[in-house]
Amino acid sequence: MNTLYTLPLGETKRYDFIQEAGCYPYGQALIVVPGKYFRWEVNKAGTARSAIIDYLPNEILRINNQEGNFIRISRAAQEMLLEQILLELEAAGKLTYFAQLVDKSGFTKTFASFLSELARGGVTTEQLTTALSSWGRGGSLAQKDMEVALIYAVYSERIKNSTYYDVDGLYRLAIALLDKGKAKLPWQKLYFTEFYQFNSLQLELIKSLSKYCDIAVGLFYDKTKPALAEATREAYEDLQSLGFTEVKEKTTVHREQDLQQLMDNWHGSSNDLIIAKHVQVRETYSLDAEMRLVLSKLKDLLLAGVKQEEIICLVRHLDDYNGFSDLFTEYGIPTTLAKVTNFSGQLLPDFLTRLFNTGLNPQDVETWQKLLAHPLCKQLYGLDNESLEESYNDNFFATPQALLKYAKQECEGEKLSNLDALVRSLGKKHTPQEYKEEILAALQNWNLLKLWGDSFSKDELTLSELKVMAASSKAVEDLLQAFLLSFEQSGQSETKITLGDFLDFWQEQSKEILLPVTEEKTKGVLVAEIANMQGVTFPYVFILGMREGVFPSVKQENWIYNDVEREELFRAGGVPLKISQVAMDQERYFFAAALAIATKELNLSYFADDAAGASSYLENFKSYFDTDSLPVEKWS
């Protein structure tokens, strides 16, 4: 039996699912959740297994001995494959509308994102071609549509004919296997909880799985709050169309009176103003000040006897709060938040970036000076770079050769010939494998882990610094492997490429890497992104970032097709492309779900400056309360 439990705002079926799953032999019931926090929640009960939804297609293929038939393609390889296709089509004269954009920075990434959106929506090349034809646009727009269909068809065919699959392809493989009717599955029942949407492929998978096992889904949906229900309406209607039996759940969470009244009134029909007794709104002048404001309030709560696990801090995007973990440490407050640092700014990655830039511009004196000024030049090659820096006041070096000659003779740089040889070798064209091997050989010769270990033994490095350096070295090796795999998966493993090509990959991927200074913990004040925290309750809730431009978080639409075009394309052929209004519906729901988390005290904060002030969400929030009962506290 397939059951859809529709829930009021802030409610969850997770605990019921955990209890029911415990009645099955271990492993025969699986609770599917959207993220790590909920996996922790399920696993600590010890009665059932949990997984994220992307685990399902992989596990289905593995159980049925299909795991050797596919390799998941990386996003970087997808973009490289697409770039290759675009260049080929442009060279063959098959692109005119997009011809001027093929070599523009960011175009490949934007188009790859668009193709992924089509794939997640379950759109086949035939469906897209038919829809675009039915659309019947003329002139240059018709040319654009034809080229979009062509690019998608060629890309899909390349993926189909390779041994590589993107995550959407893995879903299709699993669905096809299930639909043959002979697949083996270990589960008697699957539970889906804390989701607010399913894409087309996920729904197809759920439909196929329902032929083998019972499925239960817990989903917020309240017809009395249509503005909020819009975020989950599509999932609700899709599950109903699959034959799920609806069971309406009632409110079970106990909140303070004003907080419960807020839940009852929020985007509902009641106009009764709320007297705020457990709600605070605070304004300050900078992001740092806002984080310190919140931490000072946390400190007060903890000193008053509140337990750290009773508090949650919610932000829209964790990337905007990189210094938050350090401030938790400064205030002496435990947190689950991992302390991270940027990869590119670490000693080894920074040295390698300077090395690659020098190989790319071997005749540029300034580039060489930046490389030689790096601390690793002293540690690895014995260079007295302080003396070299001082010499620039009295000496002018017209060429890198003159600079290196002086450094060797006057600044203990006798070993710089090895560095010079490495720079010249890197500057030549190599295959991806050759680049990887040469850089790894250099890393082995440098023996940095021993060097840093000796420095730690001499108390020149702290244990924390040593761990970050070791992590950066491992990350370099992982990045080199990803570089090689990207070329292999895009069919370019034997291509001779320039150092500039490698440097582009290095710099693009480096921006995405964060190194852990401390690991994420399961104990301490929880800090989480709002979009990941539906269906939980905490006595004390702090929502940071109630600032215009931060929350709601509005992404720019993918310009391949704008919102108007996307709506027209859907009407023409049912191609499900996301529009900005859908994103706004989701943001509205995220905010409501965040408000619903608080059971004892709700705190909202933001900072105001010349660039922006309070979010429109906050202004709407205040309209639910008696003005005199909810003053904005200014904190400085």
Structure described in brief:
This protein has 636 residues and is of the alpha/beta class. Helix 3 crosses helix 8 (167-179).
Radius of gyration: 28 Å
Rounded mean pLDDT is: 91
> Percent range for helical residues?
40-55%
Number of β-strand runs:
16
Helical run tally: 26
- Report the uncertain regions: none
Helix-strand category: alpha/beta
Shape: globular
Please report which band the strand proportion falls in: under 5%, 5-15%, 15-25%, 25-35%, 35-45% or over 45%: 5-15%
Characterise this structure.
This protein has 636 residues and is of the alpha/beta class. Helices cover 50% and strands 12% of the residues. The chain contains 26 helices and 16 strands. The strands form four sheets. The chain has a six-stranded parallel β-sheet, sandwiched between helices. Strands 13-10-14-15-9-16 form a six-stranded parallel β-sheet. Strands 4-5 form a two-stranded parallel ribbon. Strand 6 (189-192), helix 9 and strand 7 form a beta-alpha-beta unit. Helix 6 crosses helix 24 (563-573), helix 14 (347-360) runs antiparallel to helix 15 and helix 14 (347-360) crosses helix 19 (416-426). The longest helix is centred in the last third of the chain and has 27 residues, at 463-489. It is globular and about 85 Å long. The mean pLDDT is 91.
